[in-house]
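Re: weekly structure request thread

Next one in the queue (293 aa):
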Amino acid sequence: MRYRSYEDLSDCIRRNVWKVPQDVDLIVGVPRSGMIAALMLAELLNKRCADLDAFIEGREMGCGGRRRLMREAGLDDATTVRRRKVLVLDDTVFFGNAMRKARERLSPLEGQYDIIYGCVYAEGRNAKQMVDIWLEDIWREGEKMWLYEWNVLHHYEKKTQSSMWDIDGLVCKDPPDDRDTPAYEAYLPDAVPMIIPTTHVGAFVTYRLEKYRGVTEAWLHGHGIDYDELLMFDAPDRDVRNSMMSPAKYKAQLYRQAAWAKLFVESSAHQAERIFQLAGKPVWCYENGRMYK
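Done, posted below.
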């Protein structure tokens, strides 16, 4: 499982900032994830920043308290020549579809601005041919597409269909008390939502008791969540469940047995590390943004 975190992204930008021409005056992010990289780079270089639509419409983000410094550097005057060099930046380029669309949209402006195109990670075989600059070439023969912390939870359909997800602490807020009490049972139908998956999930694996299947299914369906399986612990009560198996061991066992599952998305750092150790398969942790592999 190839993975890059926000920390990796920030580190890559810092290490390779020398590759960005110093006379770039404006950094334009390709929505959505390109905006993350664009903002990081703009903050580092103290440059103006905009998203693609804002740039086309002639709008840019404000500078806050650093406006005077940018004005003194010649970056705050719309008539200055230096303002005309623009870097259009995406986080990654694989097939290059997003970059091609950006070029098409900006083609009417090429006579007004000196526009160059770039990415942080050149991920595809031909990625470097689609941009003017790249910060890191991560393409390797025979290796598959990467996962990134900023899109691991909302990746394309094929990825989420081959993943298992935890529920409590991830899809919804952890119950205040997981004992079989009236307060716990009252919480389940109105659990506070957190990360609602936007594509079809292969399976949800929860340490909740099987007797709460009805209310759990109703909550998932009520929030428009699509999935294939809901796996719950089949025990009469919490004490029996806890005497049988820990949550990490339970999840690892199901994950290990599911040959189709390539990734487990877990809420707890302690459990994520243990699930990886027991299952021997990649686990991504929401609590610390770490990929255990």
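Confidence is low (pLDDT under 50) at residues 63-83. The radius of gyration is 23 Å.
Next request, please.
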